[in-house]
Amino acid sequence: QVQLVESGGGLVQAGGSLRLSCAASGRPFSSYAMGWFRQSPGKERELVAAITRGGSTKYAESVKGRFTISRDNAKNTVYLQMDSLKPEDTAIYYCAQASSSYASTLYDYAYWGQGTQVTVSS
C-alpha cells in the first residue's frame, strides 16, 4: 500500500521560506516521478513542481526562481523548498507519486498525500 505523508506546512510572512517534505512508502521510490501540487478555495488543483526519476525538474511559471523541488532516494523523500513566498502561494499543498518514471499531467499521478496547509500573510 502506497503512503505519502507531507509535513512542513504552516504560517509564514510574505518574503519568508518554508520547506515541505513528503515521505513515501509502499513502492520503489526511486522508480517514479514525483510532484507537488496545490489547491486554494475555488480553484483547480495545479502543478507546482515535478521531478522525474532521473532528476529532471519542471515548475509552474508562477514559482520559477522561488521554489526548488528535490528528491533523496535514500530517504524515500521529496522536498519542496519555497522561498520569497507571496500571499498568492497560500493553498493546500499535495505531494503525488506518478504511475511511471515520467509524468506530464495531473492524471499521470496515481497516489496522493493528504495535503499540508501553507498560509502566507501579507
Report on this model:
With 122 residues, the protein is an all-beta fold. It contains no helices and 11 strands. The strands form 2 sheets. Strands 2, 4, 5, 6, 9, 10 and 11 form a 7-stranded mixed sheet that branches. The protein is globular and about 40 Å long.
Number of helix segments? Answer: 0
Euclidean distance between termini CA atoms:
40 Å
H-E string: EEEEEEEEEEE
Structural class: mainly beta
The helix content, as a percent range, equals: under 10%
- Uncertain runs are none
- Got a strand count? 11
For the sheet with most strands, the description reads: 7 strands, mixed
Give the integer mean of the pLDDT values: 96
Radius of gyration: 13 Å
Task: Set out the fold topology.
Elements: E1 3-7, E2 10-13, E3 18-25, E4 34-39, E5 46-51, E6 57-59, E7 67-72, E8 77-82, E9 91-98, E10 109-112, E11 116-121
Parallel strand pairs: 2-11
Antiparallel strand pairs: 1-3, 3-8, 4-5, 4-9, 5-6, 7-8, 9-10, 9-11
